[in-house]
Amino acid sequence: MRLIMxxxxxxxxxxxxxxxxLRIEAEKVIKKEVDFNPDFLRHMLAKIEWKAxxxxxxxxxxxxxxxxxxxxxxxxxxxxxxxxxxxxxNLEEGSLVxxxxxxxxxxxxxxxxxxxxxxEV
Amino acid sequence: xxxxxxxGLLGGLKQFYNPKVELEQYPTGPHIAxxxxxxxxxxxxxxxxxxxxxxxxxxxxxxxxxSLLDAACVIGFDIDPQSLETAxxxxxxxxxxxxxxxxxxxxLELKGQIxxxxxxxxxxxxxxxxxxxxxxSAAMKVASQAVYSLHKTSTREHIKRAAxxxxxxxxxxxxxxxxxxxxxxxxxxxxxxxxxxVDLWRFEPRQN
Lengths: 121, 208
Known about the structure:
The complex is a heterodimer of chains A (121) and B (208). By secondary structure, chain A is α+β, with helices and mostly antiparallel strands.
């Protein structure tokens, strides 16, 4: 699971109001290199929830992202960090935790299991 | 990448080793999958450099096609862990990056406008009535640019009406009609092979 995907995931348990972001408990993280695409990254900057990305990256051991995204001009050094956090950090084993209910969604072999139990729907 | 090359690569993928009839698990053949994604990119620019979600990805055929056509990010969603296992192996074989999520897409809530395009070969609703509409509704909530989906030609008017009236579609077009050849996959199948007329749809959601 990469942070680009984590940024869109929410907890859909019935009754939960604070559905996202899910807190990451990382047990195994691997890095996989991906081609750098600055146009795509600039395009994504407007769509990504920044705090969720920074916190997510920290949980996976990457602390280089600035607390605030740059305003208008995003230079290459920043984009490289953004690229690495968004696309190259892979959570292989761990959990995604709903901040409100405490429910843990397990991540095994990189695949989060977001299936709910009957009572939760 | 040329169409023939894409079709060839998709033809080498592993398929369901334990297909579940109640989920309507049928492989999306390389002929349909390659044409679907090739059209999405060449006629509409909806794949290359885009974030693409594959709803009900099964063994990941459409996801693999999107990756091979240089989507910036591909995410496959499916409820069945065994299919996701096969999909993961297929991605490794092709050396493409695809993220997978185990979930029920009809119950999923995704935040934001990150997904550009949803591609899918959803259940037709032959086992769980209305499954095709549930998938379409879910896809229209997630895609910010376009949804590509396969539905039986016999449901054409119904789909168009529902998409425009209920699922927030700005447009709903049948791009082409295809023949979906289903091999004898389950014990109850009497004929060796059967041919179903399906429509390839392109839906555009209204901006949220």
